[in-house]
Structures are given as structure tokens and as C-alpha cells.
Amino acid sequence: TKESGGRYNNSLGEMNSYLQMVSEDRGLGCLERHRTRMTQCWLSQETLRDPVVACRLGNLYNKEALIGALLNKSVPQEVAHVR
Q1: Which of 73, 74, 80 is nearest to 59 (CA)?
Q2: What is the pLDDT of residues 6-17, one digit of tens each?
Q3: Are the CB atoms for 52 and 28 separated by under 8 Å?
Q4: Can you tell me the distance from the alpha carbon of 33 to that of 22, in angstroms, rounded to the nearest whole number?
Q5: What is the spatial distance between Cα 38 and Cα 69, in angstroms, rounded to a whole number?
Q6: Residue 35: phi, psi to the nearest 5?
Q7: Contact 45, 19 (CB under 8 A)
Q8: 47: three-class secondary structure by DSSP
């Protein structure tokens, strides 16, 4: 049986990114996920623009967005490996 709200009710506060939301709800294909991942900042979900930096996991970030998050100490847990 499906609970009231199902998985959406439990994970609404844990929704990490627009990409996660779209891929779970609409079922993006492998190529679409790859294209989105290579054209959007993983942290801010904005279009990538120079300068771009990458973490050891291969995620791409706008340098301004990443430095701003690090300075404000508002880095999500998934990006805690970036120093």
C-alpha cells in the first residue's frame, strides 16, 4: 500500500538539486542526464560559465558560486568534500 504522500512526502526536504528532482520525476535518460550535468553548475544549477572548477568526483561548478558557498559556510553535505 502507498502511504500518504509516498516517497515525495519523505524526501521533499532532502531534495538536493533540480537535476535530482527532474531525473526522478520525469525519468531523464542517460544522455540527457549527462548533457545536463556537463552544462549546469552542480551547486547553483546555473549554466556553466568561465571560470569553471571540478571536484575530485567530477562535478562541475561555477567558481564564483563555489567560493561564495564556501565563504558563507552554506555548502551542502554532498559537497563537503570540497575544501
Answers
A1: 80
A2: 555 445 455 556
A3: no
A4: 9
A5: 20
A6: -60, -45
A7: yes
A8: strand
- 3-state secondary structure at position 40: strand
Query: For residue range 19-70, what is the model confidence (pLDDT) as tens digits?
Result: 666 555 566 677 877 787 888 998 888 999 999 999 988 889 999 999 999 9
Q: How many CB atoms lie within 10 A of CB 69?
A: 17
Quote the cell numbers at residue 40: 549546469
Q: Which residues contact 46 (CB under 8 A, 6 or more apart)?
A: 40, 62, 65
| Distance from C-alpha of 1 to C-alpha of 27, rounded to nearest angstrom | 23
Q: What is the dihedral of CA 5, 8, 11, 13, to 10 degrees?
A: -90
Q: Are 7 and 24 in contact (CB under 8 A)?
A: no
Higher pLDDT among residues 3 and 66, named by residue = 66
DSSP annotation of 61? E
